[in-house]
Design a protein that fits this description.
N-terminal domain of MutM-like DNA repair proteins; Helicase, Ruva Protein, domain 3; about 290 residues; four-stranded antiparallel β-sheet; 2 domains; binds zinc ion
Length: about 290
């Protein structure tokens, strides 16, 4: 499932190839499940001003002139949705739901989604914030104190807080495991047990890991490819995700995996000890010493 770095690995080449490109034609498939709403917009003669991203959501900004916005296309990638940049001479891939051709371009832009959990939706600029209202700020932009405040209010695990797109958006299963290992915190800790310093450590780790994953074109676990049709490279740098039973890169203890809320979580039981347990142990040792 594409997370923030994978969405970015799709977005950046699309901007490089097609920003300022004028649409020649648009062909829409008939799968109704992919589309939210009944509206149809003619993109012909409009140009792609830019593609924005918030969390895992891509927003294509189509305009009449630079100052005159026309319509947005909001794209949620779901489990297997992706945008591909294709040479016109290449055959269209299977499971393709939207094809956009540009004037004077040897390439077209194709939305492909084999599992069809992705969603496409037309919207005007003023509707966009309402449509995305249930989604929290992008994890790379959320002020550290806001995230800490949300976490402190919750007795859920810090892993489920990182996955909660209403608090901050962009992180999924892969990066939640990687971030908590880098922060040296047990994924079973609760939000309300976090100190301010620990919550800053989580956000710092999130920024470093996500930025590095963006530079590597994301992670390819099953089938993810960037919009250029390339595999990501960040999977080679995973420290815990997908490494159950293999030695921890820091302490050689076997990495453990457990299922939580139908998703597998990976962690090192030594490098990510529960803080509370350690405190309790210290307390117990202190008591023994007194006796
Ligand atoms: Zn370890």
């Amino acid at each position: 499932m594409p997370e923030l770095p994978e969405a970015e690995a799709i977005r950046l080449p699309v901007i490089r190839f097609f920003s300022d490109g004028i649409v020649e034609s648009i062909k829409r498939g008939n799968n109704k499940k992919i589309w939210i709403g009944e509206n149809e917009y003619r993109l012909e003669e409009l140009f792609l001003f830019t593609v924005r991203r918030t969390g895992k959501v891509l927003i294509f900004d189509w305009r009449i002139t630079k100052e005159k916005p026309a319509v947005l296309l909001i794209s949620r990638l779901g489990m297997s949705g992706t945008w591909l940049i294709q040479h016109l001479r290449d055959p269209l891939p299977d499971h393709c739901h939207l094809v956009i051709s540009f004037k004077d371009s040897a390439h077209r832009l194709v939305y492909r989604d084999p599992r069809r959990f992705g969603r496409l939706e037309w919207a005007f600029e003023e509707e966009c914030s309402v449509i995305l209202a249930s989604q929290g700020p992008d994890i790379l932009k959320i002020p550290a104190d806001d995230w800490y405040r949300e976490a402190r209010r919750s007795s859920r695990t810090i892993r489920s807080l990182l996955l909660d797109q209403k608090i901050s958006s962009g992180i999924g299963n892969i990066y939640a495991s990687e971030i908590l290992f880098a922060a040296g915190l047990s994924p079973f800790r609760t939000g309300k047990s976090l100190s301010k310093r620990e919550s800053y450590r989580i956000l710092d780790a999130a920024r470093q890991i996500l930025e590095s994953a963006i530079r590597s074109g994301g992670s390819t676990i099953h089938s993810f490819q960037t919009s250029l049709g390339e595999n990501g490279r960040y999977q080679d740098r995973h420290t815990v995700y997908g490494r159950a039973g293999k030695p921890c890169l820091q302490c050689s203890t076997p990495i453990q995996s457990v299922r939580e809320a139908s998703r597998t979580l990976f962690y090192c039981p030594v490098c990510q000890k529960r803080q509370l347990r350690r405190k309790e142990k210290t307390l117990r040792e202190a008591l023994t010493a007194v006796q």
